[in-house]
Amino acid sequence: MIAHVRGTVAALTLSSAVLEVGGVGLELLCTPGTLAGLRTGHEATLPTSLVVREDSLTLFGFADEDEKSAFELVQTASGVGPKLAQAMLAVLTPDTLRVAVATDDVKTLTKVPGIGQKVAQRIILELKDRLGAPIGASRSAAPSASPTWRDQVQEALQGLGYNAKDAERAVAVVPDPDGTPNVSALLRAALQGLSKA
């Protein structure tokens, strides 16, 4: 298994990057978002996933470990191969994908070319308990102050593409839950409020 590749970016195409490692040019298939962060002639380190087929060895490169783990996890859903997994990450960030699966958001998943309604429903069904909760932009921050449910729901709405003002307004009208907050249910309530607005 090749866990990551570090080297000089020798070439960039629309779908791949060539990194020169010890005199060998390794081609990594990458999403447009990952490619946008690379510059020819500069050094880069990319987490990688090696896909082995009878007739090929294909190396996929990622912006970070989170993207890599999402890529490998979505392939555990039946009917999702590496190309479709990469297409999902080209359209959706790992957190947007987690929110879509957690909230049964078929519409967001069908934005990915190659995913229809039935495939989206199957992905949700098979990955709901395995994909995990959204990590959010604050994953590198110290865990001293845990975010409130309102912060989590607002962040999830922004991950789904709503602007900060709309997300804040939607969260403000959701009543405080009794006991331990169920963030998924509260997110659904906020989304219902947005759809009525």
Written account of the structure:
- It is a single chain.
- Helices cover 42% and strands 19% of the residues.
- It has helices spanning 32-36, 65-74, 82-91, 94-102, 106-109, 117-127, 149-159, 164-172, 183-196, and strands at 4-12, 16-21, 24-29, 43-53, 56-61.
- Residues 137-146 have low confidence and may be disordered.
- The termini are far apart.
- A five-stranded mixed β-barrel has the order 1-2-3-5-4.
- The chain contains nine helices and five strands.
- It is elongated, with a radius of gyration of 19 Å.
- α7 crosses α8 (164-172) and α8 (164-172) crosses α9.
- By secondary structure, the protein is of the alpha+beta class.
- The chain folds into three domains: 4-61, Beta Barrel (OB fold (Dihydrolipoamide Acetyltransferase, E2P)); 66-127, DNA polymerase, domain 1 (Orthogonal Bundle); 147-196, Orthogonal Bundle (Helicase, Ruva Protein, domain 3), CATH 1.10.8.
- This is Holliday junction branch migration complex subunit RuvA.
- It is found in: Cytoplasm.
Alpha-beta classification? alpha+beta
Radius of gyration: 19 Å
CATH architecture grouping of the largest domain: Orthogonal Bundle
Q: Could you spell the SSE succession in H and E letters? A: EEEHEEHHHHHHHH
How many angstroms does the end-to-end distance come to? Answer: 50 Å
Keywords: Cytoplasm, DNA damage, DNA recombination, DNA repair, DNA-binding
Family: Belongs to the RuvA family.
Main location: cytoplasm
Pfam family, one: HHH_5
